[in-house]
């Protein structure tokens, strides 16, 4: 570190760890960064805020050498540098946790981390270190577990631990907590504060403004690729930070009580054992989801949410077909397309890979779920693909959900994370389902757009759609659910009215401590609810 004497203060002036001057990045359809200045001091936790598509990830990718500026200068500890590649960035001491994970699904945690480290160490030798660091930082991991069996929350832990093993001087975190539990977030923050007190600088991107307030020393706000302001988060409120970010008053969502209608989706003692040895077995899961209601399912990632979505969507078939009924008909042995034909739409938690095919255009991604049922959307007629109809459908989603992109021909992978999420949720809503199941509907979505998505889901419910939302954000579930259940260790609690419970109570249930409450089937029997008979 270069130190220079400051005669007026009689204290040494510290060189910034990182300084960006006039950084620009231009893509064919958008100026992602426009002459951005940013300074990060040693030991500083610096937030970068902005709406979806404001240019945050692009800026971070330039600092990490994944992509390169078209103009501007980067200074590292006082010296001008070029960062041609991530390995050059790591050599400087820069680590990055990406928003979209770069993990090989068929390899174990230790094998993945060993591949990512510049010093070649065998996975066996690395395993104890991974265990140690993950425990020290409150992000428990089994080094021998295969990545494909892990939920997005667990995968995120792998990415964070991978970075921490490299002892970075600047740690870039692009939405590291988007799918971590509240306790994991608190532990991570303790660790980040410890890292910062040891001199590590942290660049922190998040849409969770309360986290930014709790953690960050400074914030730089981006709007449409430009720096629109800076702030000291502790002197702001989440609302004032949001308004600084979106440049207008924060929208809100409203749910008004209404009576639920007929049972649209019925899970009756649904049992499912995944092939994956690390998966979670679903045990006697029962729930009745009615027309015109939103039921939220809270839970810590990895407690059966993935399996539940697979069982409901048809990605995995059920031995007992009647344990899952859609509109009164057993569907447990039908494939996803057959379930979609009957009015089920769903949003999986992984947007790249499951929710959308990265290399396909938005229009083609619309076709992937919109072709069924034939005739309803008009995307396929007489076996022929109707490109104009598909393009019009995609344009409609882009306009209604304010998806920032270069149009319906843009590849899904070119969209910012939050904008792709808006497109996927918008696509499923626009298909006018009878039952809508969403996992992490606002993952990575900015606070203004999250309200827009939540309101769109509430509007669906008001139109009589039965909606199931799986989310790790308890506040979100309380904002938009009529009833809330908790999934823990593959069992589902009773779904209780949101107005009759509290975040604290649901938090206790999330640890699996709801035996004294009742499981859903038991409670339903006591309440005299009747499951639809086969
Ligand atoms: N490889 C690319 N090709 C074309 N356009 C791109 C590419 N990468 C990013 N963009 C565009 O640059 C803009 C900024 O994207 P970026 O991912 O930096 O936004 P962001 O602020 O990180 O958004 P989010 O909060 O949704 O992650 C967006 O309009 C995006 O579509």
Automatic annotation (TrEMBL):
The keyword Repeat belongs to this UniProt entry's keyword annotation: yes
CDD domains attached to this UniProt entry: ABC_Carb_Monos_I, ABC_Carb_Monos_II
Pfam families according to UniProt: ABC_tran
GO function term, MF aspect, one: ATP binding
Major localisation: membrane
Topology versus the membrane: Peripheral membrane protein
Record keyword Translocase present: yes
Cellular location(s): Cell membrane
InterPro entries membership: AAA+_ATPase, ABC_carbohydrate_import_ATPase, ABC_transporter-like_ATP-bd, ABC_transporter-like_CS, P-loop_NTPase
Top-level taxon: Bacteria
UniProt entry keywords in alphabetical sequence: ATP-binding, Cell inner membrane, Cell membrane, Membrane, Nucleotide-binding, Repeat, Sugar transport, Translocase, Transport
Positions in coiled-coil regions: none
Domain ABC transporter: 18-249, 265-514
GO cellular component: plasma membrane
SMART domains: AAA
Protein name: ATP-binding cassette domain-containing protein
Lineage of the organism: Bacteria, Pseudomonadati, Pseudomonadota, Betaproteobacteria, Burkholderiales
């Amino acid at each position: 570190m270069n130190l220079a004497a400051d005669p007026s203060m009689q204290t040494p002036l510290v060189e910034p760890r990182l300084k960006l001057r006039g950084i620009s990045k231009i893509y064919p359809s958008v100026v992602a960064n426009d002459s951005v200045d940013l300074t990060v001091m040693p030991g500083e936790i610096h937030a970068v805020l902005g709406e979806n598509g404001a240019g945050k990830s692009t800026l971070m990718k330039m600092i990490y050498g994944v992509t390169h500026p078209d103009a501007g200068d980067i200074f590292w500890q006082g010296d001008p540098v070029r960062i041609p590649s991530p390995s050059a960035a790591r050599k400087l001491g820069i680590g990055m946790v990406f928003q979209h994970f770069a993990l090989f699904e068929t390899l174990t945690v230790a094998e993945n981390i060993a591949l990512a480290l510049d010093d070649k160490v065998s996975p066996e030798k690395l395993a104890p270190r991974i265990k140690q660091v993950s425990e020290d930082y409150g992000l428990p991991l089994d080094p021998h577990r295969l990545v494909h069996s892990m939920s997005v929350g667990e995968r995120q832990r792998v990415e964070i631990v991978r970075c921490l093993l490299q002892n970075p001087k600047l740690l870039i975190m692009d939405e590291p907590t988007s799918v971590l539990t509240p306790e994991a977030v608190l532990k991570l923050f303790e660790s980040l504060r410890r890292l910062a007190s040891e001199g590590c600088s942290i660049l922190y991107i998040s849409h969770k403004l309360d986290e930014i307030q709790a953690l960050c020393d400074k914030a730089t706000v981006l709007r449409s690729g430009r720096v629109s302001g800076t702030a000291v988060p502790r002197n702001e409120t989440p609302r004032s930070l949001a308004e600084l970010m979106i440049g207008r008053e924060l929208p809100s969502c409203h749910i008004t009580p209404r009576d639920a209608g007929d049972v649209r989706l019925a899970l009756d003692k649904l049992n499912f054992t995944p092939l994956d040895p690390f998966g979670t077995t679903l045990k006697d899961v029962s729930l009745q989801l009615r027309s015109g209601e939103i039921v939220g399912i809270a839970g810590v990632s990895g407690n059966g949410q993935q399996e539940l979505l697979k069982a409901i969507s048809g990605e995995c078939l059920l031995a007992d077909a009647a344990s899952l009924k859609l509109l009164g008909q057993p569907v447990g042995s039908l494939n996803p397309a057959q379930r979609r034909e009957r009015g089920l739409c769903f949003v999986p938690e992984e947007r790249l890979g499951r929710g959308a095919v990265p290399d396909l255009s938005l229009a083609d991604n619309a076709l992937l779920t919109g072709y069924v049922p034939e005739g309803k959307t008009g995307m396929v007629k007489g076996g022929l693909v109707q490109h104009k109809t598909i393009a019009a459908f995609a344009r409609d989603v882009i306009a209604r959900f304010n998806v920032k992109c270069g149009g319906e021909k843009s590849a899904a992978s070119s969209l910012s994370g939050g904008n792709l999420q808006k497109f996927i949720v918008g696509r499923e809503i626009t298909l006018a389902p009878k039952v809508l199941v969403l996992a992490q509907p606002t993952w990575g979505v900015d606070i203004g757009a999250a309200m827009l998505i939540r309101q769109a889901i509430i509007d669906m419910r008001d139109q009589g759609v039965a909606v199931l939302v799986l989310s790790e954000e308890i506040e979100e579930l309380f904002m938009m659910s009529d009833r809330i259940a908790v999934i823990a260790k593959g069992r589902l609690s009773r779904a209780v009215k949101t107005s009759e419970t509290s975040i604290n109570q649901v938090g206790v249930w999330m640890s699996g401590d709801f035996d004294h409450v009742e499981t859903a089937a038991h409670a339903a029997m006591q309440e005299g609810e009747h499951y639809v008979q086969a």
